[in-house]
Amino acid sequence: MSEPVLEADYVIVGAGAVGMAFADTLLSSSEASMIVIDRRARPGGHWNDAYPFIRLHAPSAGYGVNSLALDSGRIDRSGWNEGFHELASGPEICAYFDRVMHERLLASGRVAYLPSSELGADGVVRCRLGGARKRVRALKKTVDCTFADTRLPATDPPRFALGAGVRCVTPGELPAMSEPCDGVVIIGAGKTAMDTALWLLEQGVDAEAITWIRPRDAWLLNRANVQPGFEFFARTIGGFAAEMEAARDASSIDDLFARLEAGALLQRIDTAIAPTMYRCAIVSDAELAQLRRITRVVRLGHVKVIEPGRIVLEQGTVATSERHLHVHCSADGIPSRLPQPMFQGERIVPQYVRRCSPTFSAALVAHLEATMTDDAEKNAMCTPVPPPCVPRDWLRMQVDEARNNAMWSKSAELRAWLAGARLNLFSPLIARAVQEPDPVNTAILDRYRTAVKPGLARLSSLLAGAE
Ligand SMILES: Cc1cc2nc3c(=O)[nH]c(=O)nc-3n(C[C@H](O)[C@H](O)[C@H](O)COP(=O)(O)OP(=O)(O)OC[C@H]3O[C@@H](n4cnc5c(N)ncnc54)[C@H](O)[C@@H]3O)c2cc1C
Questions:
Q1: 392-408 and 233-249 are packed helices; what angle lies between their axes, rounded to 10 degrees?
Q2: How many Å lie between the centroid of ligand 1 and the Cα of residue 196?
Q3: What spacing in Å lies between the alpha carbon of 353 and ligand 1's midpoint?
Q4: 64 ligand 1 Cβ < 6 A
Q5: What is the model's pTM?
Q6: How far is Cα 270 from Cα 26, in angstroms, rounded to an integer?
Q7: CA of 91 relative to ligand 1 center, distance in Å
Q8: Which atom of ligand 1 sits closest to the CA of residue 46?
Q9: 57 in ligand 1 pocket by Cβ < 6 Å?
Q10: Is 36 in the pocket of ligand 1 (CB under 6 A)?
C-alpha cells in the first residue's frame, strides 16, 4: 500500500523537552525545514503523564527551549522552595511547550507537527487515532529525540506482584483518593518517591502513618547551590569552587563525598546510611527537613510481592494490611543506557553534553548541527555526559563535562553562541563578575580558577582507581 509522503530537511522524532529544544535552536541557527512527530497528543513528552503535583526540581530558568523563558524571574515567597527561583509545575511545563509549538515552531512556517503519531521500525508513521498512515522523508537527517526512554509510574506498571485486595495506586491517583486508610506505603527511592512523600506531608498526613520502602539511599544536590541570578553568585559559583577544592583535596572517593557533604554541596536524608545512588535529584533544606520526618524506612531490598497482610522484599518481610494504601513510585525514570555518538551520518541522537541538562544539551547539539559540517568534529565537541545512577557518576560527569567545555572554548563561534544562550545559566554570572569586579566575587573566581585543574586531575585519578 502506498502512503502519502511528507518531506522536510529534518525529521525529529519526539516532541518532549529534548525534541522541542532541538527544533527551537535549529530554527534559530539555520534555514532548515522540519517535521516533528510524537505519539503523544501534545508536546512536552513525559510531563503530560506526570502526577499533578510534580514540579521541576531545578529552577525553571534553566529549562525549556532556548528562545523563550519558562520562568518569570520570580523568587518563591512561601513553601519549601521559599527564597529560591520558581519551579514550574507539570501543567505549566506542558502549557509552555504547547505555546512554543504553536507560537514559535508552527508559526515559523518551517515546521510541520504530527501529534498522536507513532513512527514504526518500518519507517511508517501511524496516527494512533484512526490509523492513518504516512511516510516521512528526511532530506538531510533524522533526529532521534527518544533516547531518554522515560519511564513513569503512570505508564510503567510495578515490577512487583500484587495479591488480591491489595490497594496500590500511582502518585497521579493520590489527589482523587477519598477512602480512608490506616497508613501509606511509598515504594521507591527516587524523585517521584520524594515528591510523593512531600506531597503527603503537605496534605497533612502524619509522618508516622507513612512507611517508606527505600531499597537505596541517594546523594542529593542542594538547591541553594543551583540558583541563577547574580544575587546568588557567592553560593552558586562558590559551590563550583568548593566542589573543585573538595576534589583536589580528596584522599579517596569516600573522602570526597565526606568533603562534599561537609560543604553542603551534597546531602542525604539519613546521615547514618551510605548512599549507593546518585541521580541528580535536588532538594532544598526545608524539603530535606520534611523528608527526615519520615522515620519508618524499610531497607530490605526491592519489593517482590505485596500480599494482603505482608510485603515480601528481597531481604525480608514487613507487615501491611488491606487498609494500607501502597504508592508505586518505582518506575525507572530515566533508565541507564549506553551512550552513542551523537552525530551518526544521517542520524542524530541528542544526549546530555552537560551534567543533567537535557534542554541545554539538545539546544547545543542543534546549534552544532546548524553551524558545522564534519561529524567527527561535531562529536569531538559532544562527549556524552550520561545521566547518573551511582555516586561515582558524580565524578565521571564532572570530568566529561570539563572535556566538553574545553572543546567549546576553542571555537569563537560557539563561545559567542554560549554567551547569548538563555539555557547557559551560569556563564553570564561569571562574565558579570569579571566585568563588575568586587573583592568578594573576585576571590570566589580566584578560588575556582586555582582549584579547577588539580580538582579535575584528582577526579580522573580517583576514577581510574589509582587511589
Ligand atoms: C519524573 C521526572 C522529573 C524530572 N525532572 C527534571 C527536572 O526538574 N529538571 C530537568 O532538567 N530534568 C528533569 N527530568 C529529566 C527529564 O527526563 C528531561 O527533563 C526531559 O523532560 C526528557 O525529555 P525527553 O524529550 O528526552 O523525553 P520524553 O519526555 O520522554 O519525550 C520523548 C518523546 O518521544 C516520543 N516517542 C518515543 N518514541 C516514539 C515513536 N516511535 N514515535 C513517535 N514518538 C515517539 C514519546 O511519546 C515522548 O513524548 C525529569 C525526569 C523525570 C522522569
A1: 110
A2: 20
A3: 16
A4: no
A5: 0.97
A6: 45
A7: 14
A8: 29
A9: yes
A10: no
- CATH assignment of 161-217+268-328? 3.50.50.60
Residues 6+ apart with CB under 8 A from 126: 117, 118, 120, 132, 133
17 lines ligand 1 (CB under 6 A): yes
Q: Where are the domains of the chain?
A: 5-150+335-407, 161-217+268-328
- Looking at the domain covering 5-150+335-407, what would its CATH class be? alpha beta
On the CB side of 43, CA atoms within 13 Å amount to 32
Give the full edge-to-edge strand order of the sheet including 303-306.
Answer: 161-162, 303-306, 310-313, 316-319
Does any ligand 1 atom lie closer than 6 A to the CB of residue 150? Answer: yes
pLDDT tens, per residue, the chain with 467 residues: 578 999 999 999 999 999 999 999 999 999 999 999 999 999 999 999 999 999 999 999 999 999 999 999 999 999 999 999 999 999 999 999 999 999 999 999 999 999 999 999 888 999 999 889 999 999 999 999 999 999 999 999 999 999 999 999 999 999 999 888 999 999 999 999 999 999 999 999 999 999 999 999 999 999 999 999 899 999 999 999 999 999 999 999 999 999 999 999 999 999 999 999 999 999 999 999 999 999 999 999 999 999 999 999 999 999 999 999 999 999 988 899 999 999 999 999 999 999 999 999 999 999 999 999 999 999 999 999 999 999 999 999 999 999 999 999 999 999 999 999 999 998 888 999 999 999 999 999 999 999 999 999 999 999 998 55
Match 513510585 to its residue by C-alpha cell.
Answer: 329
Alpha carbon of residue 154 to chain centroid: 18
Q: Is the CB of 144 under 6 A from ligand 1?
A: no
Q: Which of 13, 89, 97, 150 to mutate to test the pocket of ligand 1 (most atoms within 8 A of CB)?
A: 150
| 142 Cβ below 6 A of ligand 1 | no
Backbone angles phi, psi at 314, to 5 degrees: -60, -35
SS3 45: helix
- The rounded Å distance from CA 234 to ligand 1 centre is 32
Instruction: Please work out whether the CB of residue 45 comes within 6 Å of at least one atom of ligand 1.
Output: yes
Q: How far is the CA of 363 from the centre of ligand 1 (A)?
A: 15
Q: What is the pLDDT of residues 58-89, one digit of tens each?
A: 999 999 999 999 999 999 999 999 999 999 99
